[in-house]
Amino acid sequence: MIGAITAGLLSVEVTPPVLPTANMFARYDASNAGSITLSGSNVTAWNDISGNSRHAAQVVSTAQPTLATASLNGLNTITFDGNSDFFDVVNTTVLSNNFTVYAVVKSNWTGAGTTSGTTIIGGADSAFTWYINKSDSRLSLDKTLQASMLMSSNILPSGDVNVWRQTDLTWSGTYSGTQRWNKAAAGSFNRSGYAPTAAFNTIARYTSTAADYFMNGSIAEIIIYSTAHDSTTTDTVEAYLTYKWGV
Fold first, then answer.
1. What three-state secondary structure class fits 53?
2. Which of 60, 108, 203, 221 qualifies as a cystine partner to 87, CB 3.0-4.6 A?
């Protein structure tokens, strides 16, 4: 679709940014009706539209999230209750070296808390879990039992909660990488010398020996690449998401 911006007698055609597809590992888009299976308003399946068949599904009715119609820029999103809603993902590949993850998400809480935060994607025992940390409103990436935590330097401004944001994570297979909130300046992170030990296999939940931690909020889109993107490619993906979702 090409949009037109008119100012007086001047009409300017706006060409939407093109989403890069090279090295795309998985993609989940709540606005793509063909990728969503519903039971009433409950979402029972969310298919991977990258072509790699890493589909997400939930057969337990009490754990199924709900479809929020036209809830962001006129597009559908998926809402998770923070207590039990999540998807299992068909995925056995461990992204242990280079990867990049983008998401458009909204966390539903007010103020800081002591419990773990809003999970975007997860795995068993935090082997590969990316989440918004409720205690300090940071983006974090865990490794098993939180033995290695990656935390960006970007913290949500005071009072800036319950809003839609783009979130980005780039891991280059070394001891550092970048995360950033909604096109903000990149925040660096460091970790011990080991990469994720298991595949991400859930959306909106990770399971540890202590407890299960769920998404409390909404997800519009998740895009995962099996390569570390440079800033130019990241800017391109962000431009695509900004144009599409208006965030």
1. coil
2. 203
How many residues does the structure list for the chain? 247
How far is the C-alpha of 220 from the C-alpha of 57, rounded, in Å? Answer: 16
148: left (phi over 0), alpha (psi -120 to 50) or beta: beta
State how far the Cα of 128 lies from the Cα of 190, in Å rounded to an integer: 15
CA distance 220 to 165: 10
Is the model's pTM score more than 0.85?
A: yes
Tokens of 203: 């959306």
**CA distances in angstroms from 54 to 27, 51, 84, 108, 203, listed in the order given:** 8, 8, 21, 27, 11
Q: What is the pLDDT of residue 13?
A: 73
Residue 195's pLDDT is what?
72
- Residue 135 pLDDT: 67
Task: Quote the CA–CA distance of 129 and 142 in Å, as a whole number.
Answer: 5
- Could you give all domains of the chain from N- to C-terminal order, each with its CATH number? 24-245 (2.60.120.200)
- Mean of all residue pLDDT scores within the chain: 84
How do 176-181 and 205-207 pair as beta strands?
unpaired
CA–CA gap between residue 45 and residue 22 (Å, rounded) = 25
Q: Which residue did the predictor score with more confidence, 95 or 34? A: 34
